[in-house]
Structures are given as structure tokens and as C-alpha cells.
Amino acid sequence: METRLDTRYSADDATAIPWAQARKVLTEAEVSWLTTIRPDGRPHVTTLLAVWLDDSAYFCTGAEERKGRNLAENPHVALTTGCNRLHEGLDVVLEGDAVRVRDTAKLRRIAEAYEAKYGSEWRFTVSDDGAFLNTYGDEALVYEIAPVTAFGFGKGLYSQTRWRF
């Protein structure tokens, strides 16, 4: 991984943010924003719940939801999280491709991660044929984003760090 401070957008005394700090933000964030690309090229942004596991972000969606339909056509995404304060915190943006997860063992680990993070309200089960089911029995498609590039925007002491994987 390459870590680089972009001095054009950083305070004179800023230093590059360690990836471990960004990973902590991704792990602890309760809400993230996912940007997908509509078939006509326009962006679509929506909030969602995500879990960080094995150096990747995971989220789920219904096949017929806008983001699900977008991902069927174009896997390029950005996942954003952080805080809405100007003088504190760290915002993180992951760029990569959303790849559908179909491995039953991995899906079970993701389901466990959702419940550990969000509680029983967000309990999923995985059927023997690999379906990821919510508490109503509806199937959700699970996607993994392994970051290709990520950005960290430090606030207070303003900084912009780029990580390339």
C-alpha cells in the first residue's frame, strides 16, 4: 500500500493519516453513503449499513433496488463515511468495484459481522444454497468492495491522504 499526503489540500503542518486510523473509521461507522452509476451515467447516492471485514467493506441490497440494478450494469463504486463536523473527525472515501459475494462460508461471517455491529435488528441468515436472508425471509445480494484507492480527509488540522492498494 502506498500512503501519500496531498500537500495542495493540507495544512502546512499536517502529516499523512495512518491507514489504521481510516480503517477504524470504516469499522466503527454506523452509516455510510454508496455511490453507484446509473445506466445513463448519472451518479446515484444512497445511505446504507456496511461492515468492515478482512480489509474489505461489505453491504447488501435487493436486486431490484436502484443500487442493485446499477451494480448489475457497472461495478464501479465509492463508499463514503465520516462525520458532518467541519473542525473535527476524519472522512473516508473508498473507491473500487463492488463484487457479488456468493461463498456460503463468507456470507455467514458477514451475517455475523452485521449482527455484532448492528444488533438483532439487522440479523441475516444464510441458507445452504447461499441465499442471504433478512428477518422477513427476503433475499439480499451481498457485495464486497476491496479498496483500490481510498482518501482520508482530516478536519481541524486539515489534510488529505491518499492510499493506493
TrEMBL record:
* Entry keyword set: Oxidoreductase
Please list the GO terms describing molecular function: coenzyme F420 binding; oxidoreductase activity, acting on the CH-CH group of donors
- Protein name per Swiss-Prot or TrEMBL: Pyridoxamine 5'-phosphate oxidase family protein
Q: Which Pfam families match?
A: PNPOx_N
Would you say which domain of life the source belongs to?
Answer: Bacteria
Q: Which organism was this protein described from?
A: Amycolatopsis acidiphila
Keyword Transcription regulation carried by entry: no
GO CC annotations?
Answer: cytosol
Q: Does the keyword Oxidoreductase apply?
A: yes
The segment(s) forming the Pyridoxamine 5'-phosphate oxidase N-terminal domain are 20-122
